[in-house]
Amino acid sequence: MMRLVYCLSMIFCLAHSVQAGPWLREQGSSFTSVSVTGNFALDTTSQTFIEYGFTDHTTLIANVTLRRPRFDLEGGAATVSFRHAISVPEGPSKWAYELGVGASWTGTEVSPHLRTGLSWGRGMELSGTSGWMTVEGELIWDLLYGLHVAKIDTTAGLNLTDRTSAMLQIYTGHTALTSTATIAPSLVFTPKNGAFRIQIGTESLLGDFSNSAVKIGLWRTF
User: How far is CA 178 from each of CA 6, 16, 42, 89, 139, rounded to the nearest angstrom?
Assistant: First the structure.
């Protein structure tokens, strides 16, 4: 049972990454983010997220999470997906669906999974300042234990300056065994003459801020 709970927690972690929602990459372009999250107990999670514009209507995605608890077994999860647009390019709202395969692992035990997702996004303005909002729903079907994880992730962002953006993300997840909700505010800024964007933020379980974590990430568009 403990291995089951731990494998499910690995899948939950896949939501805690930079996601573009329904917006697609131009053909031949790519985006990469690498982040590390750590709490006071020295539990750490590292994530690598890669997008590649396979065509103007299809983006390939790789998402890898490695978790290193201080007093528990190490594990991870990885998923490869594709995102395809289902809305017209000129529409104000963007829609896309995703399909993928992957696996989570704890020690030597590996649990494969399938992933399905649907995302919505829209640009917005607030007092003359541009921003965006996305809502992403997904189901991850665990093939080893026959269970599934349902998740809804919401992101609201605001471009404070030409080089600085603020984001507020809420990740929610539900299985037959447990439910979680995480709030994650962050700032993303581009140093002067810098090739990378830097993300600094926090992640906290709603109702339990005692185990809050700090997140630092690097973004790069090619």
Answer: 12, 17, 24, 38, 15
Tokens 């929610």 found at: 172
30-80: pLDDT as tens digits = 999 999 999 888 889 999 999 999 998 999 999 999 988 887 778 889 999
| Mean pLDDT across the chain | 86
Residue keyed to tokens 């093939």? 143
What span, in angstroms and rounded, lies between the C-alpha atoms of 140 and 120?
18
40: which residues sit within 8 A by CB, 6+ positions away?
A: 211, 212
C-beta contacts of 187-190 below 8 A and 24+ residues apart: 188/164, 188/219, 189/163, 189/164, 189/165, 190/163, 190/164
* Domain spans, the chain: 2-121+136-149+191-221
Q: Is the pLDDT of residue 109 over 90?
A: no
From the options 1.10.287, 2.40.160, 3.40.50, 2.60.120, give the CATH code of 2-121+136-149+191-221: 2.40.160
